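Technical note accompanying the year-one report. For the benefit of new consortium partners, we illustrate the data format agreed upon in the data management plan: each record pairs a sequence with a structure-token string. No post-processing was applied to the example shown here.
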Amino acid sequence: MKSIFTPIFLVLGIGFLQAQECQAVLSGKIISQDNQEPIMSAKVKVTGSDLVTYTDIDGNYKIEGLCNGEIELEISEQTHQELFVTIAIKGDTKKDIFLNEHEQLQEVVIIGRSTIRRSPTAQEQSISEEDIENFSSSTIGDALKQMSGVSTLNTGKNIVKPVIQGLSSSRVPLFNNGVRMEDQEWGVEHAPNIDLNTAGKLTVVKGAAALQYGGDAIGGVVISDKAKIPRKDTIYGKTILSGETNGRGGSVSSSLSKGFESGFYLTLQGTYKKFGDNEAPNYMLSNTGTSERNFSVNLGLNKSDYGLDLYYSSYNNHLGILRASSTGSVADLVNAINSKEPIYIRDFTYDLAAPRQKVHHQLMRIEAYKNFENLGKLSINYSFQENDRLEYDIRRGANKYKPSVDLNLKTHSASAVFDFNARNDYGVKVGMDWNFKDNFANPDTGVQRIIPDYIGYGFGAFATGFYELNSNWLVEAGLRYDYSHIDAKKYYNKTRWYNQGYDQDFSDLIIGDYGSQYLVNPKFDYNNISATAGVKYDFDSNYELRLNYAMSNRAPNPSELFSDGLHHSAASLEIGQLRLKSENSHKISLCLDKSKGRFNFSISPYLNYINKFINSEVNGLEETVRGVFLRYEYQQMDSRLIGVDVDADYTFNENFSYFGKFSMVDGRETRSGRAIVDIPATNMSHNLTYHNHEWHDLHLGLRGDFHFTKKRYPDDNFTIKVLEDGQYEDRLVDISTPPKGYILTGFDASAVFHPFKKGALQVRFSVDNIFDVEYRNYLNRLRYYAANTGRNFTLQLKINY
């Protein structure tokens, strides 16, 4: 434990250092009071001086070299009223400034908090567009794990799912431009189907406090927002080219935006990625390449009192699964798990052989809003999604090129939200949403369908609000109701049906008898209530304390209920459980922030009790006509998770700065004290950055990622008899013992040049895993068969025009 708390005390100890006078920095956002959106290209000038700056595309401004005392700012932008305002500077200061568009509204309010937060009392972090661009050739999960408390659950390098404070999959819904992604995201080997390059900002709300986004977000919510287009006559764009040595491939992403003073706007965006086999330090990871093609278009009208937004995206991903994870016999599987190297290694290639996945996801959305003067904003949203998933197994003969899994999920959803945001001292938001899902599992695969045909629909309604008691205290509360219904038709092997005891509890579901199988028609209804309550206290201009309680309920998803067969891409058998009930979570989180001055930090402990927690664990092996596989069975138990996230940054001077983060979470069954599987190991990161604005905006960064050996884990190891040299011998199958801890180092360098009359060229070079360390991550499902990827060099060119 000493090694765990040492970094916390180190970063807190730096806090006694004081900023020097006349080196203060004033920063914040310029935001439209009418629609709560950031204002781009607003002029911010310190009156009586030559200090002036302009807001960026996210509305951010920054003025350096200020002395303590009062200053007057002049803020101007052609579509908003000019404003003069006095601000007291006491060290580094952060102020968000709100401008009005309506001439009859003369009041402009300056506050120390941002109304853009989804929940004023919850733990929340964001990644800006500039940081997102550094991960242009990676996945959304890779970008999100830069935040404290966020890890990733992997199936190799290319299938990456975010894990927030120990929870993932259906407990962490992802919203893409206001639409909840419905893409069979519940499986470990199902990555979010979203192009990271479409995001202008990524936000993580840790826990279920943001009730607008659903009551089932027990782990948290990931929100991807598009970049704002200014309401002015302008055209701009960017192209990002990335090349990587590990995988010998790269990506190109380009976007072009056109804005009009009338409020019309249009954005076109596209991405192409191509990688071959990845490499571990000592061998090739065969069949781990990927090919991705994405496209999106966004157009609409943005007026001060009303607007319309239309969005379409097409996501196409074709990726390989590590060939060594597919085995044919008990001996092969045991040898593959116990071997230090993959049992199958081939020369590098871009070819994608079985096992592999092909996913095509389409999203269409239309949103309209109307601002009502002195009242608030009404937003109405409708969307349609279609997700096609094909999974190819190693097959012979006529079925060689036929998918083993062929799923098509269509989702219609709609929502209406009214935000009573006319006042800054209190606000109320009410809304409702509806969804309808139709899943079709193609029977022509010739393989038992792991997910059945089903129809599902749901309805939700919520109300949230906050109230500022005074300049120090703010309170928040919310309530949400969700109803969901699922109607499935599934074939069950009779042996499995009786072994599970379903003949005793669910005999009334049988609608057909087909020899060795029953056709059953499960229909389930779930009624869930979620609630949140919290307080925020501002000690002074530097410190802020937030306390939040959230109760949330999550209905079991189709995978947890109905899985009954081989998931080829994960090389595992999954067995669902019809008896599963809704999970019920009670989470208490505390967050202490210091956000001004040279030294800033955030300490966020939390405690999460989850009744009827659903998870899957290995329960031996099962032999099929295809081969022998690990068998994962879903189960339910009462559990608790306790942890802490720490962030800290320190500015040494105008050139050097430090950022560090630390996360620890422990998950256990409450009755037995047995550890929960797939809980991240304790980890921390340190980043030292050099920045020289005068010399081509040069950035140099050195980082170190520390992953400790996981000490607490469930023991699911088992022995099995394997035929060797004509005799059966007991062999231990070690699928539980976590891999050893490791340290990864990285380096980043970037500079901006102006070779064109307009625009800029940014050149970025980075190295991951500098010392080519061989390691296996506990949350990588393919760690049984191979190590993680080794050293990787990346060269990125970003052209703004």
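Partners are asked to follow this layout when depositing records. DSSP finds seven helices and 46 strands in the chain.
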